[in-house]
Write a structure and sequence with these properties.
2 copies of one chain form a homodimer. The first copy, chain A, is of the alpha/beta class and 230 residues long. Chain A folds into 2 domains: 4-15 and 98-229, HAD superfamily/HAD-like (Rossmann fold, 3-Layer(aba) Sandwich), CATH 3.40.50; 17-94, DNA polymerase, domain 1 (Orthogonal Bundle), CATH 1.10.150. In chain A, 49% of the residues lie in helices and 12% in strands. Chain A has 9 helices and 6 strands; from the N terminus they run βαααααβαβαβαββα. Chain A has helices spanning 17-31, 37-55, 59-74, 80-94, 104-112, 125-135, 152-161, 176-185, 222-229, and strands spanning 4-7, 116-122, 143-147, 169-173, 189-192, 213-215. A 6-stranded parallel β-sheet of chain A has the order 3-2-1-4-5-6, with helices on both faces. The N and C termini of chain A lie close together (6 Å). Chains A, B: It comes from Sphingomonas lycopersici.
Chain lengths: 230, 230
């Protein structure tokens, strides 16, 4: 029935946002003398959004945006120690342990029995490779695609590369904006598996046409859903 | 005769080092109150090397290492304006114009008549994609491979992905360390096209076994060299 099961990685296979959130909390604490947490959070979100076109996604971009937000809010009163602490927080972020979601290996085995698995993730090339290696999950995937962004064209090219017909592909992940909508636009099925604490940038209205769309509580529910649509 | 002609991008198809060198010159000027140019250059090289395992290659890593080097040398006397200037220099680096080497389109056409062309480049995913798009050269390549590092395994996997036998592949680029040696180790031919001002990190002793190795002055000499080995 399916040619390809495409899976997001961060916050779909393993925890991710909690580490970015921890780095941001450290930033807010550093900036407490200059701005309350709400203002600081807004300055950080603005820096990230402004820098996306320059830096793209990932922990290095996040680190550079933290520095920019700190300079914006602290002005000339910002202590240099804050810059040092931000660099350290960025390196901690790049080195965080990979904590798999419960039962993920079993779920991947079940999915792999149904179709070829492809990991589709955006972010820093080296960081994503490092996390995948640390996860021990690499051998379960027929392909690893680390991309600069997830657009309909990203999925069209990916399906073509694997000789897969879009209507025989499914993409599952925690981002409505990056996983669900572009996969649907490319003609595939898409499954939304929301996570608490997601980055606001990744939010979007759900699709109007829900024929090939579902929301599931956990990735562990995906094999049974695939059996139902088959 | 050949299955695949693999080409490096930065300083093989287009200018690159001159933009990193300009950013470094700006850094040295900022740090002039704290250290002479030689010391500052060494601090920057040390920061880059120390950070490679964390950050990988590319302009964002370079920016973060510039900040670290400035903090190392300036200590608590470093003005915050230096951090702002480094962030700006990093963004300039990410947005530099793509300046093709002379005659590169004609050379690629000649090479494409001999085998499939694959671009093999390391650095920031988004930055390399952006440069390739700006170059207008993308359609000449059968494949684009943006990798976190160039190791013998990188080339082995790449040749397998394109169903190419290593002894029927050639890799050409300006780095002895990243283009020539790993491609030879993977069983391919390799062509070294040195450029003035190359990063010391990319230097290495030439291979002892030169049966499948050549040094050429310009990429434009590659088609004729391929005809000679055929």
């Amino acid at each position: 029935m399916l040619d390809l099961i495409c899976l997001d990685a961060d916050d779909t296979l393993w925890h991710n946002m909690r580490f970015f959130a921890a780095a941001e909390e450290a930033l807010l604490a550093m900036l407490a003398p200059f701005a309350d947490a709400g203002i600081a959070r807004e300055a950080m979100a603005a820096a990230e959004l402004r820098n996306l076109a320059h830096y793209g996604y990932g922990a290095k971009s996040f680190t550079l945006s933290m520095i920019e937000a700190a300079l914006d809010l602290g002005g000339d009163a910002l202590p240099l120690s804050a810059i040092r602490e931000i660099l350290a927080a960025g390196k901690t972020l790049l080195a965080h342990p990979v904590e798999l979601f419960d039962g993920i290996e079993d779920t991947l085995d079940q999915l792999a029995a149904r179709a070829r698995l492809v990991l589709v993730t955006k972010g820093d090339l080296l960081h994503q490779e490092t996390k995948l290696a640390a996860s021990g999950l690499g051998s379960r995937f027929a392909g690893i695609e680390i991309v600069s962004d997830k657009t309909p064209d990203t999925f069209r090219r990916l399906f073509a590369r694997y000789d897969a017909r879009p209507e025989r592909c499914v993409m599952a992940g925690d981002s409505m904006r990056s996983d669900v909508l572009p996969a649907l636009a490319a003609g595939a099925w898409a499954v939304f598996i929301p996570q608490a604490g997601a980055w606001a940038h990744e939010a979007a209205a759900p699709p109007e046409d829900r024929a090939r769309f579902a929301t599931l509580d956990r990735l562990a529910d995906l094999p049974a859903w695939i059996d139902r649509i088959a």
